[in-house]
# Entry
Amino acid sequence: MTTNPGSAEAAAAISGAGGLAAASGGDPRAASGWVRMSPVRSPFPPIEDYAFLSNCHTGALVAPDGSIDWLCVPRFDSPSIFGSMLDREAGMFRLGPYGINHPTARDYEPGTNVLITTWRTVTGWILVRDALTIGPANGPDRVTPHSRPPYDDDADHFFVRTVECLEGHVDVELICEPAFDYGRTPATWTFVDADQHVADGSGAGTTVRLRSDMAMGIEGNRIRGRRRLKRGQTAYCVLSWADQLATPGSYDEAMTCIGHTTSYWRNWLAGARIADHRWRDALQRSAIAVKGLTYMPTGATVAALTTSLPETPRGERNWDYRFTWMRDSSFTMQALHYLNLDWEADEFMQFVADIEPNHDGTLQIMYGIDGRRDLTEKTRDDLSGYGGARPVRVGNNAYSQRQNDVFGAVLDSVLLHTRRSQRMPRRLWPIVTSQADSAAKVWRNPDQGIWEARGDPQHYVSSKLMCWIAMDRASRLAEIRGHPDAKKRWADVAQEIHDDILAHGVRTDGVLRQHYDTDALDASTLLAVLYNFLPPSDERMRNTVEAIAKDLTEDGFVLRYRTNETDDGLSGKEGSFLICSFWLVSALTSVGEVERAVQLMERLLKVGSPLGLYAEEFEVKTGRHLGNFPQAFSHLALIQAASRIVLAERLAEVA
Ligand SMILES: OC[C@H]1O[C@H](O[C@H]2O[C@H](CO)[C@@H](O)[C@H](O)[C@H]2O)[C@H](O)[C@@H](O)[C@@H]1O
# Structure
């Protein structure tokens, strides 16, 4: 038992006598120091009901009841300290009205990553602001596009929560119960000031500091505070984890941090070129979500904030996405370029230039956000998993897979970057040559494909297509660099791959197939349309789009493939893949079916979360989101699809 005796009285004063008496009897975690203080929160909220906050170092998910159910510190890929998303006993931090779990309204402060929650109780109204703080080093200056913004990468990062009573009176409750190392180690709390407004919670080599102007007590492994706020009164609490643990010391200071955070996001967004269109809000939210998944110190992006949110309810399709996939990042760069947000793309190019290649010059398909290579997957059998979906995985064995699309992803990004910045950094040329030569060598080999199937390698059409992109982009880059021999050599290979796909990758009905030895469909072949493998007027492009729209959809939403036709080495049925559904919007636009594209886009926007966020998949029969959340793939494809439609509509207007 880790209770600080000195603080037990304070706890009892707040929670009422007997607060500490609720014991851990029968709880297997008691042996490791757990002291259960209240019934386990249950059930798991729907994935899409979470709010996402980020400081571009790490991110958090806030449940509708005001609890932070996911936070890893100090980085996206660190072990969680609040992990209730994966196990109701793996840590949480709630601020909200006592005894009420359903907010009246939740929204972001427009154009920011600051969450505003309003609560109405029988006695009054309160407004809670939540932010993972971030801010400009030199004040909220306007960011000029194409210049390095005055971001303070090394600023202290806090989770700041403020509450303001708008009407009547409300009893506000704070419960902070970290569980370090993905729920394995409960916090040991000690007060560090005499007034008991600052406490340190430690475990598994990590210390967090909680500071508040509310009276706090230690109850076993958690801090609890309660205060009655009357109209016009305020309170705050701040959680920090930086070494110096310096935190705002008053409500006003906390609000200043939130103000800086607001300015940061708005200034960043001011650099984006977002069409004045009815989808503007969705585009802005997606841009903020994608940016929020960027790890600022290296420019790497995580594929999603979380690990192991299930793609099949209660199933085994649970993966850790807190890493940087070359493919996902390349698509992210494209999406940010659509919005004129080139600066992040520049940063990612630096990341690419810095990574350590394999001995043969190839790149891994994914890396840690700090560029590390070993992402060995482990299962955490001590965690229940979201809704009972097990195993929970930490790490991702896909890192050692052979996925031949990676060459195209990297080289397409380099060409895009070169064109946008009108220069090609010298340090990128060795990467171009090694990727192009590797692609030229391996494109004939089977691989695991872009869906990272864990079954046998196949000749995936989309992998060959991306090798064609690799050779095409390399040839254009060689031209820019003035290497005519390389230009010709790589263009010849591009042509060879093109011919090969047309010879083996097209079914007798003129539709692109998933891989050379099947007639099954695969939504990744929509990339052929998006990358202009053939002109959009070519029948094979239209046939592929129509076949996918008709035979690979559930209620209009696109599956990446049918799991009963494709052995991906896993059990369970998936939901529709949101990236594929947005790809279909883009592809319909390309082949001139703009009205149908708009209809599908509108439906996709309707199934976004109440806060405009998307997981990886959507389950048509329940209307629930599935998989990791929020997922960059879904948001970047939304940006691409909307941008393409907006462009098509504008062109139609001037025609
Ligand atoms: O379905 C099996 C695979 O699922 C994950 O991969 C998916 O997510 C990646 C990150 O967004 C994406 O790049 C890939 O295209 C998706 O299929 C998982 O990470 C893999 O380990 C797993 O084998």
Notes: Confidence is low (pLDDT under 50) at residues 1-28, 137-154. The pocket of LLGJG24Q is lined by residues 303, 319, 321, 325, 327-328, 396, 398, 450-452, 454, 568, 633 (CB under 6 Å). The first helix runs from residue 5 to 15. The chain has 15 helices and 27 strands.
